[in-house]
Amino acid sequence: MRYKIFLTIYAVFYIVAGCNHFISTVGYYAIMPKWLPAHGFLIYLSGLIEIMLGALLLFSRTRKLASLLIILMLIAFLPAHIYMIQIAPFMLGKILVTPFIAWIRLPFQLLFIGWAWYYFRNPGKQ
């Protein structure tokens, strides 16, 4: 029962986060490292990928693959998190991102990677 509840929370988290790329696109420009090309394309692409991977988590047949791809995606997002640390403090919409807030995001990335790893190791559990 807990497995299913936490799986649903994790999947919905990615679906909502992915939708946010389309709703709050401007905010993502602020955290994109300048050396990355095609910021708009990457923002929309990463949002679409998050939505798809969140949905794929919900099915036992695709859960293992989705979990592995989420781990790789989160590793790919690390440059944006490091960039946030470098440019903090800065405004993200109406939110002041302090150096502390920017730094605290890194352990959360590890938590999310660990969460995905759990579903990678236990894909068929109901």
TrEMBL record:
It is a multi-pass membrane protein. This is DoxX family protein. It comes from Pedobacter frigidisoli. InterPro entries: Methylamine_util_MauE. Keywords: Membrane, Transmembrane, Transmembrane helix. Its main location: membrane. Residues 11-85 form the Methylamine utilisation protein MauE domain. GO terms for biological process: methylamine metabolic process. One of its GO terms (cellular component) is membrane. It is found in: Membrane. The keyword Transport does not apply. The chain crosses the membrane at residues 7-29, 41-59, 66-88, 100-120.
